[in-house]
């Protein structure tokens, strides 16, 4: 009976922490498992100082800069990235934006940041999964790169192809399965660890630790469409008999919990693989006459309130695709291998990844979390977003309004940044829905994250003389009639001067009293 009940619990690794939470760059060596174990012990020992069970920004800054030797900007990047990942409600996000925008000095800003704190155990797991972006030299030398070359996911054509690890839910599951022991040990109380900082057969995992693991794992019971966090499922009916939970100690047997998790972990029904295999195919883009390429667009079939939907677009070629749809609202969007196209996705989005695209323009609705552009040439991205990051791009221009510094990762060339320069009728409503304001705006203050990208010559701010506004050529209902927040003075001045020159020329032509001259061509 107990075995049947346990088998009815289905667990999977959540997509959200990887797609939105993992920085698409190898983490610093000091964020490896060895140092995270030391950080866990340090935080627990200093609970009274604001380290545990919640970690304040000042204490994390001290640990990151003083103990782990991280740059202060990088320390804030990881802290703010995790803080924003936890889906704060839009009003709270707008309040924080207002507080940050009104700070008149770095000291005031630091005082505001000092009010923030995060769940310590969840933050440790967040830092641990940054390893998914790491390439192991040792395993590469022996020919077994993680994830294994056998871990592949289907494309929209049904063929198998190696995918970005941050998007591939099969890789997420493989990562958690491979590192489950270390992650559980990271959550153990000091007295449950051996002298070598490892678990023993008698180690107990606290209920609070399993609550923290819910950051990564969720599931269902009896194929229900209701999604529950891990800590609720771990106490479901007779599951405690399988995972070793004791009501007396309010803790789980370490070996039994680990075994139960491994036996219940399965494929994510809301992940990219499920979307590609059984998702709904969308006919948003029509096939272009005279070409053999057909755009492939799919969205999640299973949609539940607890999970953000997913939309995947591939091979849009020489087309203009425009959509404002409920299918897009709150979606993780992946745009892949699009060429010579204009793509307008005018709905509030959760995240957007643009990969391997060429000679195209992307106009996006407000993005609540992140926009990542990878391996693209000569693309323009026009967006209001919480965070922008780019890697391996060449000749790309980004017109953005963003409350965080754009992240320049490795492999970029000839990047241009410019202020957000367009609007559509529902834009400000959509911004409010995802908690994005017009201030602060760091579009012109990119952060060079990787050592190899430390050369500031890889980017420039677009000269005002090269700047033009962008008109979205579609009619919609709504109240927005101008660019939210306006334009920086230098850019507005350049536009005004250009408009004035046109008016002077038109006036000169009109006052010249010119007559029409017939042209005779013999």
From TrEMBL:
GO terms for biological process: maintenance of centrosome location; maintenance of Golgi location. The keyword Ribonucleoprotein does not apply. SMART domains: CARP (SM00673). Gene3D superfamilies: 2.160.20.70. Its main location: cytoplasm. It comes from the Eukaryota. One of its GO terms (cellular component) is spindle pole centrosome. PROSITE patterns: C_CAP_COFACTOR_C. Pfam families: TBCC. Signal peptide: none annotated. Residues 305-436 form the C-CAP/cofactor C-like domain. Keywords: Cytoplasm, Cytoskeleton. It is found in: Cytoplasm, Cytoskeleton, Microtubule organizing center, Centrosome; Cytoplasm, Cytoskeleton, Spindle pole. Belongs to the TBCC family. This is TBCC domain-containing protein 1. It comes from Amazona collaria (yellow-billed parrot).
């Amino acid at each position: 009976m107990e075995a049947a009940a346990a088998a009815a619990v289905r667990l999977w690794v959540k997509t959200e922490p990887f797609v939105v939470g993992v920085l698409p760059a190898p983490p610093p060596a000091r964020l490896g498992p060895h140092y995270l174990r030391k950080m866990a012990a340090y935080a627990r020992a200093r609970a009274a100082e604001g380290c545990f069970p919640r970690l304040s920004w000042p204490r994390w800054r001290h640990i990151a800069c003083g103990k782990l030797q991280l740059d202060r900007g990088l320390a804030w990047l990881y802290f703010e990235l995790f803080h924003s990942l936890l889906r704060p409600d839009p009003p709270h996000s707008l309040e924080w934006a207002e507080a940050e925008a009104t700070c008149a000095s770095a000291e005031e800003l630091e005082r505001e940041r000092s009010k923030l704190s995060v769940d310590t155990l969840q933050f440790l797991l967040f830092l641990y999964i940054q390893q998914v972006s790491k390439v192991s030299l040792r395993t590469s030398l022996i020919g077994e790169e993680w994830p294994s070359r056998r871990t592949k996911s289907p494309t929209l054509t049904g063929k198998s192809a190696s995918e970005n690890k941050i998007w591939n839910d099969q890789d997420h599951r493989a990562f958690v399965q491979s590192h489950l022991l270390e992650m559980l040990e990271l959550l153990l109380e000091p007295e449950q660890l051996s002298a070598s900082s490892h678990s023993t057969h008698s180690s107990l995992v606290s209920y609070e630790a399993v609550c923290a693991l819910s950051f990564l794992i969720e599931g269902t019971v009896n194929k229900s469409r209701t999604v529950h966090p891990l800590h609720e499922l771990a106490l479901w009916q007779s599951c405690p008999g399988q995972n070793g939970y004791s009501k007396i100690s309010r803790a789980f047997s370490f070996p039994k919990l680990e075994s139960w998790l491994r036996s219940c972990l399965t494929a994510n029904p809301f992940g990219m693989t499920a979307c590609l295999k059984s998702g709904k195919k969308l006919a948003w883009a029509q096939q272009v006459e005279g070409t053999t390429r057909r755009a492939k667009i799919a969205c999640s079939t299973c949609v539940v309130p607890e999970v953000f939907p997913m939309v995947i677009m591939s091979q849009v070629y020489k087309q203009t695709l425009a959509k404002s749809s409920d299918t897009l609202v709150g979606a993780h969007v992946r745009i892949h291998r699009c060429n010579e196209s204009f793509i307008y996705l005018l709905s509030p989005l959760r995240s957007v990844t643009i990969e391997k695209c060429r000679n195209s323009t992307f106009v996006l609705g407000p993005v609540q979390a992140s926009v990542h552009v990878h391996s693209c040439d000569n693309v323009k991205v026009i967006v209001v977003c919480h965070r922008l990051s780019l890697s391996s791009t060449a000749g790309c221009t980004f017109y953005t309004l963003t409350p965080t510094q754009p992240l320049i990762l490795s492999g970029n060339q000839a990047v241009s940044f410019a202020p957000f320069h367009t609007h559509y009728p529902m834009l400000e409503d959509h911004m409010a829905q995802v908690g994005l304001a017009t201030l602060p705006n760091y579009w012109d203050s990119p952060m060079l994250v990787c050592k190899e990208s430390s050369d500031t010559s890889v980017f420039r701010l677009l000269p005002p003389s090269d700047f033009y506004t962008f008109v979205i050529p579609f009619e919609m209902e709504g109240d927005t009639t101008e660019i939210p927040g306006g334009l920086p003075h230098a850019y507005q001045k350049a536009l005004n001067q250009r408009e004035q020159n046109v008016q002077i020329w038109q006036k000169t032509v009109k006052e010249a009293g010119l007559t029409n001259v017939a042209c005779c061509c013999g």
